[in-house]
Amino acid sequence: GENVEQHPSTLSVQEGDSAVIKCTYSDSASNYFPWYKQELGKGPQLIIDIRSNVGEKKDQRIAVTLNKTAKHFSLHITETQPEDSAVYFCAASIHRAAGNKLTFGGGTRVLVKP
Amino acid sequence: DGGITQSPKYLFRKEGQNVTLSCEQNLNHDAMYWYRQDPGQGLRLIYYSQIVNDFQKGDIAEGYSVSREKKESFPLTVTSAQKNPTAFYLCASSAPDTPGYSPLHFGNGTRLTVT
């Protein structure tokens, strides 16, 4: 089955700096790659996703890039703010007729220092 | 407000007891999922259901059971056969717009502690 590796496991940045989280996946058939943000005591929330027919996607201060050949994708957060502090998860799934069985990475704990 | 409700937020049980975690959604989503979250291991899929009265095992189904009698409800039972039941349990749902690409919507989880 699919295996998703995520690095780093923890990331500390100064407010205003950029943060980058990288994920690799094993199944070349995977074609959907969402990123989730989880705040303390809450469930994960989708922040951005990318499909395999797209190389890059941006939404304000966050962007995701996908390299299908190398089977890796990355999350970039620019101009980080204290409220960006959270645990971030990448995930991958394969297009199927129904349902969306995601495989998640191990998570990255991001701390933005004011 | 539409969403997913998990209850209770904290649950304590003695070893050897079965316990049922509740998950209700009012998003009218067809698919529902249960994930287990342990520190440093991300989220692992326990069971999922794409339609009422049907469900499939995920990657770590042993020691768990589910039912899907209603579209809005997907309760998870942690049985005494589960060797390490203490964890944070997350319920999610999705409504495929483009099949395979639909995002998961998560509840706020139930933290189960078994002693």
The level of helicity of chain A is: under 10%
Number of helices of chain B: 0
Rg of chain B (C-alpha, Å): 13 Å
Strand content of the residues of chain A, in percent?
over 45%
Distance between the termini of chain A: 41 Å
SSE sequence of chain A, one letter per element: EEEEEEEEEEE
Extended strand count of chain A:
11
Strand content of chain B: over 45%
- What average pLDDT do the residues of chain A reach? 92
Largest beta-sheet characterization of chain A: 6 strands, mixed
Helical proportion of chain B, percent range: under 10%
Protein structure class of chain A? mainly beta
| Helix-strand category of chain B | mainly beta
- Poorly predicted ranges of chain A (pLDDT <50, ≥5 residues)? none
Blueprint (SSEs and pairs):
The complex is a heterodimer of chains A (114) and B (115).
Chain A: E1 4-7, E2 10-14, E3 19-25, E4 30-38, E5 45-51, E6 56-59, E7 62-67, E8 72-77, E9 86-94, E10 103-104, E11 108-113
Parallel strand pairs in A: 2-11
Antiparallel strand pairs in A: 1-3, 3-8, 4-5, 4-9, 6-7, 7-8, 9-10, 9-11
Chain B: E1 4-7, E2 10-13, E3 19-25, E4 31-37, E5 43-51, E6 54-57, E7 64-66, E8 76-78, E9 87-94, E10 105-106, E11 110-114
List keywords for this structure.
heterodimer, A: 114 residues, mainly beta, 6-stranded mixed beta sheet, 5-stranded antiparallel beta sheet, 0% helix, 57% strand, globular, B: 115 residues, 7-stranded mixed beta sheet, 11 strands, 49% strand
